[in-house]
């Protein structure tokens, strides 16, 4: 307030030689009111920004993520209502907006979430995980399995030492062929596995660590044919 009053007195009592001498007293007061209004507006906006910043600091760290999640849920609910009003399937219409790469990433994420790899714990857990993986690859007909189980009963469907050979249950030839093909694929896949190389204690030591050993092997594969004679001359001491 003191600064504005000093500014007003300066404007009103400036010498006639300045550019403000042509302004009347009413114009000067009008200019002063405009400056005062701008100052009050700036103070108001500054106070509002300070209050908003304090509110943002009081919010949890993941508030932005939650806010985006809530906005997406609101848009999804509105999209679902629009689809229902038009008689369309909500999930089908949503999938039409998903690209091929995004769909592949979502499918991979879903499969990993359904069967997470927690690492090796016991042989029993590893066997169970492998069994579940093989069952998903074979894709058995669980509906036919349940119907046959209900028709034959527990005792005949799961034969014991007393009922073995009595049950008339026969496997589907197509299911047997599918299992046979899967076993053959497993055998072919195991052939491609890289076995662990045995360490040769009699081999020459021309390395200082494991990384240098692998690097020397790569050099030997690439240039060993050209440097064999030079290496022999160096070992015999006949190199020029």
From TrEMBL:
Compartments where located: Nucleus
Residue span of region Disordered: 158-183
One GO location term (cellular component): Prp19 complex
Comp. bias regions, Basic and acidic residues: 167-183
A Pfam family recorded for this sequence: SYF2
ATP-binding found in the keyword field: no
Annotated GO biological process: mRNA splicing, via spliceosome
Main subcellular location of this protein, as a coarse class: nucleus
Keywords: mRNA processing, mRNA splicing, Nucleus, Spliceosome
Family: Belongs to the SYF2 family.
Assembly mode: May be part of a spliceosome complex.
Function of the protein: Involved in pre-mRNA splicing.
Alphabetized PANTHER family for the sequence: GCIP-INTERACTING PROTEIN P29, PRE-MRNA-SPLICING FACTOR SYF2
Protein name: Pre-mRNA-splicing factor SYF2
